[in-house]
Amino acid sequence: MSESQAPRTGRTAAARNAGDKVVFAQIEPTTRCNYICGFCSGRQMDQTDFAAEDFARLLDAFPDLEHIELQGEGEPLLHKGFFDMARQARARGIRLSMITNGSLLSEERVAALLDLGMEAINVSVESPDEQEFRDIRGGSFAKVKAGIARLLAARRARGLDRPLVGFAVTVLKHTIDRLPEIAALYEELGMDGGATVQPLSRMEAYSEVYDEKIAAQLLDEADMQRLARLRNSDPKVLAMKQQATQSSHFYPEMHRRFPMLHGCPWVRGGIYVDRHGALLSCCMVKDAETHGLGKLGLTPVEVVLNKRREIDAALSAGRPPEQCRGCAYYRPPEEREILLQKVRAQMLRRRQAKAAKPE
Hints:
The protein is α/β, with parallel strands linked by helices and 359 residues long. The protein has helices at 13-19, 54-61, 82-91, 107-116, 130-137, 141-157, 179-189, 204-207, 212-215, 221-233, 235-246, 250-257, 266-269, 288-291, 301-316, 333-356, and strands at 24-27, 67-70, 95-100, 120-125, 164-171, 195-199, 270-273, 278-280, 294-295. The protein has a nine-stranded mixed β-sheet. The chain starts with 12 loop residues before the first helix and ends with a helix. The protein has a domain at 13-257: TIM Barrel (Alpha-Beta Barrel), CATH 3.20.20.70. Helix content is 45%, strand content 12%.
């Protein structure tokens, strides 16, 4: 963590002003998907699309938007208006990124994605083994791999360095040891967007849809330690991890922009908009009726921001709201103090090293 990324205990005027805006927005184009992943909450939701005509309304409601993630609990490329919405955002100078299952990266769609000038595209994967992939997702990994290769080849042919292309990896108990294989494939294909790596979520919004078979794939403490060892020891996994922290994809960019001590950048600069136009504090809150911030086109923006500030204050005070419990982002006060001590020690070492250098 650099000094510019270090958590801050106070709020400067600039930070306060940034927190009073919506700079990052994730929009759920659809909950429809051509895959059947048993751990995906979207498979249990109503299968609907975001109303394309609401997209301009959203852009008008949040004029400070800088980056949009077009992805939710479905496959975004199934939305017929995906590219039209994306073009509207790009016309306003807004950066775009997305996560896709990779099965629809045809030559035509690849060309359209490159025309947009997207910042980053991550492809979701749990295992590069064909049979294991089919068992988890109900599709062909060979098709996904071919789509990634097609995207990268077309990007190279145009002489472009964007979009960065990476992986979004959800780790199941029986796929932990696949991570080095995923990293080897990442290198083989010449991918450059890094990889987000996260265990199967224990948050209630996700775990309530798990059947017995999926619940058995949750990682226990020993599994988490084994995963941590792999992430920190395998050279190719380390390289993939490092590229992820430097990526211009929505999530790492939001973390860099809002490095909050309590761990959640969403409540200072982001918002999630589901397929019904419900405004939510982050992508992991699914119950809009109970925990929503408002409705696009109906709720005044200041009301939405006030609710977001309340969540921010609760997290800062060490009292995470119900919808935030179990979130991997959140840091309780005792962990914050440990982190602060590490950051302070790191900054002291840098100052000492700088002072020791001859002029």
